[in-house]
Amino acid sequence: MSQESAKIKYITPPLPKEKEYDPFMEATLQFERAANFLDLDPWIYQRLKYPEKELTVHLVITLDNGRVESFTGFRVQHSTVRGPAKGGIRYSPNASLSECKALAAWMTWKCAVLDLPFGGGKGAVICDPLHMSENELRKLTKEYTLAIRDIIGPYKDIPAPDMFTNAQTMAWIADAYSQSVGYLEPAVVTGKPVHLWGSHGRAMATGYGLFFVLQEACRYLGLNLEGKKAAILGFGNVGSSIAKLIHKAGCQIIAVTDIFGGILNLHGLDPFELEKHVSRTGSVVGFPNSEPIDNETLISLPCDFLIPAACEGQIHRENAANVKAKIILEGANGPTTLEADEILKDKGVLVVPDILANAGGVTVSYLEWVQDLQRYFFSEEEILKKTESKMKKAFADVVAVAEKHQLTLREAAYVLAVSRVADTLAALGRAA
Ligand code: NAD
């Protein structure tokens, strides 16, 4: 069969309505739309549809109370076509292999949108980090690292923080990996503390990236940031950093939720005070001068910017029609389902997709990796300047594809990303 006649339309049937949200199915459908648009060769399509590698590990640690407990963890490498796999590690009771596969694929596309020399990976451990001591988390992290040690490394797969992991977690990973190879290898993970060869600017990197992209999105719509109202779902690393940056730029944050509940104040919440409250109490709940609110109410609030910054699938077919924001800035990965996307498109809401919007984190991770490999370090100012120019260039690249082909920003970002990875695969000549 000739290459031309072998081309087909790729169709994964959508999940039946009654089935639960499946992140990898969502990621596959997003990829397939771009594959169809680009008329990808079948061998390229097949190589990019499934992850290259999926590792499941079982970890055993002794808890502080003396009980021996086992935990399941994953590391998925979706693609290493353009460079080592890159992507975070999540600790969550709801983590699953399907979630890791989706998040790993999104990392491949995100790195391609930013034109970084990485593929995509993701890892997770099923655990309840909010009910574990620091000692238990340290032991679990070291066990997990030893279990995935053979497939990670500075030129193979470079983990980073994600939900409920942080710079300390990355330091433990760097240590377990370094002990196993026999020398300090900081380039095996990013998002480390600065005193362990982490990068300046990493802690706020995803927030800064979101902020630069929001500035561009406002410019694109002819809006001024100042005086606008924002609602933020999730107040961890991503949610709190974008909150502080837009507050400083003169926006009002009217509502914030986290896993325990939420708060509303139509006159504005101070994210700096809120951050202090969260570090004292562990949650946004009970912040002075605020009313309680839930995720569904937050999503339907009259505001200019809706910023999902927690987990996947929060904006879906049941609530998308209630969105009143002009811009959805996706801080989280996969917060909007495909069905919701269609509804939002009809409503004229500008959705700045995750694989573009929240790429500030991986961009600074890339800079951290470059610094670690060279043992030569940049100032925070240099990091921010490089991040700003990369994020703004990516936004312009996506808008150019969107305008040329009359696509949404998400469709355009996927077309751009998939075409970049496909071009690399074709150049490598890996035809099946
Ligand atoms: P985090 O653990 O620091 O914070 C997560 C926040 O979301 C917490 O406030 C938590 O309480 C809240 N949350 C969790 N489930 C919730 C729910 N059902 N409803 C409301 N709030 C909920 O995690 P993070 O690093 O800020 O990551 C948040 C999202 O951003 C994830 O989707 C992650 O994949 C994505 N992301 C993170 C980075 C990064 O650099 N950390 C980069 C890109 C994308």
Tell me what the structure shows:
Among the domains are: 51-191, 3-Layer(aba) Sandwich (Rossmann fold), CATH 3.40.50.10860; 205-356, 3-Layer(aba) Sandwich (Rossmann fold), CATH 3.40.50. The protein is 45% helix and 17% strand. It has 15 helices and twelve strands. Strands 9-8-7-6-10-11-12 form a seven-stranded mixed β-sheet, sandwiched between helices. Strands 1-2-4-3-5 form a five-stranded mixed β-sheet. The two termini are 14 Å apart. Nicotinamide-adenine-dinucleotide is lined by residues 161-164, 206, 233-239, 257-259, 295, 309-311, 331-333, 358, 361.
Bound molecules: nicotinamide-adenine-dinucleotide
Main sheet summary: 7 strands, mixed
What proportion of the residues form beta strands (DSSP E)? 15-25%
CATH fold-level topology of the domain at 205-356 = Rossmann fold
Total DSSP helices: 15
SSE order, as H and E? HHHEEEHEHEHHEHEEHEHEEHEHHHH
C-alpha termini separation: 14 Å
The mean pLDDT is 95
Corresponding CATH superfamily of the domain at 205-356: NAD(P)-binding Rossmann-like Domain
- Major sheet: arrangement of strands: 9-8-7-6-10-11-12
Q: Helix/strand/pairing class, anyone?
A: alpha/beta
CATH class of the domain at 205-356: Alpha Beta
- The low-confidence runs, each spanning 5 or more residues with pLDDT under 50, are 1-8, 13-18
Radius of gyration: 21 Å
CATH architecture title of the domain at 205-356? 3-Layer(aba) Sandwich
Number of strands: 12
Q: Percent helix among the residues? A: 40-55%
Topology:
Layout: H1 3-6, H2 23-38, H3 42-49, E1 53-62, E2 68-79, E3 85-92, H4 97-113, E4 120-126, H5 134-148, E5 157-161, H6 167-181, H7 205-221, E6 229-233, H8 237-248, E7 252-258, E8 261-269, H9 271-281, E9 291-292, H10 295-299, E10 305-308, E11 327-329, H11 338-347, E12 350-352, H12 354-357, H13 360-374, H14 380-405, H15 409-428
Parallel strand pairs: 3-4, 3-5, 6-7, 6-10, 10-11, 11-12
Antiparallel strand pairs: 1-2, 2-4, 7-8, 8-9
Helix pairs in contact: 2-4, 2-15, 4-15, 5-6, 7-8, 7-13, 7-14, 13-14, 14-15
Bound molecules: nicotinamide-adenine-dinucleotide (NAD).
The site of nicotinamide-adenine-dinucleotide has 24 residues, from helix 8 and strand 7.
